[in-house]
Amino acid sequence: MSEKTILRALKGERLPVPPVWMMRQAGRYLPEYRATRAQAGDFLSLCYNPDLAAEVTLQPIRRYGFDAAILFADILLLPQALGLDLWFVTGEGPRLSTVTTAAQVAALKPAAAIHDTLSPIYETVRILARELPRETTLIGFAGAPWTVATYMVAGRGTPDQAPAHAFMAQDRAAFAALIDLITQGTIDYLSAQIEAGAEVVKLFDSWAGSLKGRDFDDFALEPTRRIIAALKSRHPGIPVIAFPREAGPRYAGFARATGADCVALDNSVSADWAAAEVQKDGCVQGNLNPRLLVSGGDELVAETRRIVQAFSQGPHIFNLGHGITPEADPDNVTRMLEAIRG
Ligand code: CP3
């Protein structure tokens, strides 16, 4: 049995057909996902139910035969494990109790306490490691510290991350202490996922694009570098995908600066530019606009082929530039896969 395609691409191998998976591939666009979520009761109950979380992780693998499965969980479970309240408002998104002062940072639980809350997630990983087809790679994940901090400070998603920027401006040392705690928790969380059977881990820095200059270095690049160094020292050879979404020109050199094996590209980056400036350092992942899985048609096929072609001279994992949306047509995913695999 030859090595799994995703692991080969992550080692820098150029493959004739790129391996493929999709961010949010287990999600509301699939009727079988909606049925299992209803069975669980709500989104968080689904995340913390290992049998049902494993079931929704497997659904898109059965339907489409993706080359990777991503653990079903959420980046906001870590703040909950650090002591914040977390709930989801249907149709609106996540809500958390907030952390806006040095005293509130100091009152959070220590990183070592996270496993009390997160152990069901490790059980989901163990089930998946047993049940996935042998050719499918299992990806674990966490939020990158900056993105997780933006939700902890604001208590919700924000268009410009203004509350986190304000905390940073007002008390940079306290904000840095929050980033340090999340960094440590993330190392322990991802380590536990790897011990349970995750073969690759991915760091989602969805709001990296709002950090500029020194702030990008201190709060996007450096925590990512620390997490990757710690994981690779505990688990030699573990591949890491970094997703500094909307980093723009800062995508160039990101893999070298952080030690990431692969950089995931959002769809604001041109594939031709990234092939020249990012792929020269190793594997890239991306970057179809998820909107095209709603609209479909010839544009979907042409754009899928264009991305495959643009990255065909180096290691590439096909993916979207962001998560698939609930409005996407499941048949368009089939059309995308046909355009990739022929
Ligand atoms: O990719 C996957 O399918 C793996 C599981 C996964 C989820 N969220 C499941 C989910 C992953 C990797 C995430 C990451 C995540 N979560 C991010 C980073 C990536 C990104 O999207 O930018 C962020 C910022 C979150 C926080 C979060 N979770 C938000 C803002 C929301 C609400 C927005 C929305 O899409 O509804 C969630 C909910 C969420 N997480 C859903 C899923 C499948 C939808 C929940 C539902 O079923 O109602």
Explain this structure to me?
GO terms for molecular function: uroporphyrinogen decarboxylase activity. It catalyses: uroporphyrinogen III + 4 H(+) = coproporphyrinogen III + 4 CO2. Substrate binds at residues 24-28, 74, 151, 206, 322. Homodimer. By secondary structure, the protein is α/β, with parallel strands linked by helices. The chain has one domain: TIM Barrel (Alpha-Beta Barrel). It has 16 helices and 9 strands. Strands 1-4-5-6-7-8-9 form a 7-stranded parallel β-sheet. Helix 15 packs parallel to helix 16. The two termini are 23 Å apart. The structure holds coproporphyrinogen III. Coproporphyrinogen III is lined by residues 23-28, 37, 43, 70, 72-76, 93-94, 141, 157, 204, 206, 323. The site of coproporphyrinogen III has 21 residues, from strand 3.
